[in-house]
Design a protein that fits this description.
Blueprint (H helix, E strand, L loop, with lengths): L5 E9 L4 E8 L3 E7 L4 E7 L8 E4 L3 H23 L3 H28 L2 E6 L6 E6 L5 H20 L5 H17 L5 H12 L6
Antiparallel strand pairs: 1-2, 2-3, 3-4, 5-6, 6-7
């Protein structure tokens, strides 16, 4: 059995989710990802040759907190509009505390939306386009983050060049790896379905 040789490591912490992500490149062509939070721990490893070398950066949107922001903001505007159209001192005394509470809830929801919608950099599978690895952008700092990402890209390119297989065989291996990650609870069923749908549209479907 080949000894595990660690090439590089990166650790990221998300205060919003009370989560720690640990990334470990080992034996030149594999990466292990371990995620710890208050509920559980998940860990998996994959061959870097299965990844697309060009990561995608975007902001993950927290739909729940966005809905909360819209709900409290709209409710506040409705109460203010009603109070404006019905100038009554007794009504003002009843609705003003409620309006203040809704304004505070709007601000709190906006703050939570910001923290629950982080900037991420994602690496996807080469053919199915399924997100396999997600990094918190510029965590723990820009220098360490960029250095690790550049090493990831370089090793992905090297690993993919060393694989002596045609696209059909690579695609079969990728789908098997995605199914394995689903069984391990890393990927959701809808992600696998999207991956298979994408693969079925390719000209070299196995």
């Amino acid at each position: 059995m080949t000894d595990k040789i660690i090439n590089s490591q990166l650790e990221q912490k998300s205060k919003a989710k009370s989560e720690t992500r640990h990334f470990e490149i080992f034996n030149d062509k594999h990466i292990q990802v371990t995620t710890n939070n208050l509920v559980d721990e998940k860990s998996f490893s994959i061959n870097l040759g299965l990844l697309e070398p060009w990561p995608v950066r975007h902001r993950k949107i927290s739909i729940a907190w966005l809905s909360a922001v819209l709900y409290f903001a709209i409710s506040t505007l409705i109460y203010i509009a009603y109070l404006t159209s019905h100038p009554d001192s007794s009504l003002l005394g009843k609705l003003l505390p409620l309006i203040v509470v809704f304004i505070l809830l709007t601000i709190a929801s906006l703050i939570m939306f910001y923290y629950r919608s982080p900037n991420v950099t994602e690496f996807r599978s080469r053919y199915a386009g399924c997100v396999l690895i997600s990094f918190l952008y510029n965590k723990p700092n820009a220098s360490v983050f960029n250095r690790f990402i550049e090493e990831m890209r370089a090793r992905i390119l090297t690993a993919s060049q060393n694989i002596k297989m045609d696209k059909r065989r690579m695609l079969v291996i990728e789908l098997k790896e995605l199914d394995r990650l689903k069984k391990e609870g890393i990927l959701e069923p809808h992600q696998i379905k999207q991956a298979h749908d994408r693969v079925s549209s390719l000209n070299f479907t196995p």
